[in-house]
Amino acid sequence: MKSLFTVMLLCVFTLMGCGDKNNASESIQEELKDDLDQKVYKVLTYPHYAPYEYLDEKGGIIGFDVDMIQAIAQSQNFKVEIINSPWEDMLGRFNTGEADLVISGISRQQAGGDADFALSNAYLHGRDSILTKEGVTNINTFEDMVVHNIGVQSNTIFADELIAKKREGNPTLKLSSTSFLAFSDLVNDKVEAVYAHENILRHYAKGQPNLKFNFNGTGEGFDYYDMVVVAKKGNDELIAKINAGIQDVHQNGTYQKLHSQWFGVEAPTPTIKNKNRY
């Protein structure tokens, strides 16, 4: 009897084990099906704009924008394929089927408002800044920059604005091929200040822990503005997904974590956005 009871118990446990295995198998199959069913969207970016997007040592595309769009995708149960794109005509590639989305440090104004494209809500608030070393307190406005030695990246709106105010060939304006070189000139005391996107300057400043900097900028042109994800005009369903994902990552703490990781400071809560900037 004892032997028979033992055999019966073994059979029960064996059947239970088989049931667990079957349940596990079904669960795995469901996960695989969900994975296969996920829509993959092609996302263009120009990876030469650290820390928004840039290439790592292995040629992979990394940056704040990349992490944000991946977090948004995870929130809304879709996938993204990040594609390296030239800046020129990047937004025009919607019409060729090469892109579903663009995220590349683009402001609402740079995209031309919503006249030609479908634009998301703000996933990030941008701001421009005049960076000086600690102790420099007399360079805070456009008027101040006119009479001081300023570094700026060439072929940018920042350079265009300063050239218009300082005039072409002004020796107090030092043009560099990248914003990092302009920042390096400040570190090496070749200029008194650098004019660029604040988030970019904060990224570079993180790499100089032994130096202290001031992020200045008052008056017109130094308000916050919206950074947006761009889709083809009429693709309202996709933009609705993006907006839902933006709201989710802002509420669950992911946005704050990424902002601190890439820019070295907590995300601001701007009360004014410059609608005329860019």
Explain briefly what this protein structure is:
Helix content is 38%, strand content 20%. It has 278 residues and is an alpha/beta fold.
Description:
This protein has 278 residues and is an alpha/beta fold. The protein has 2 domains: 40-126 and 227-263, Periplasmic binding protein-like II (D-Maltodextrin-Binding Protein, domain 2), CATH 3.40.190.10; 127-216, Periplasmic binding protein-like II (D-Maltodextrin-Binding Protein, domain 2, 3-Layer(aba) Sandwich), CATH 3.40.190. Helix content is 38%, strand content 20%. The chain contains 8 helices and 15 strands. The strands form 4 sheets. A 5-stranded mixed sheet has the order 5-1-6-15-7, covered by helices on one side. A 5-stranded mixed sheet has the order 11-10-12-9-13, sandwiched between helices. It has a 3-stranded antiparallel sheet with strand order 2-3-4, with helices on one face. The termini are far apart. Mean pLDDT is 85; it is low at 1-15 and 271-278.
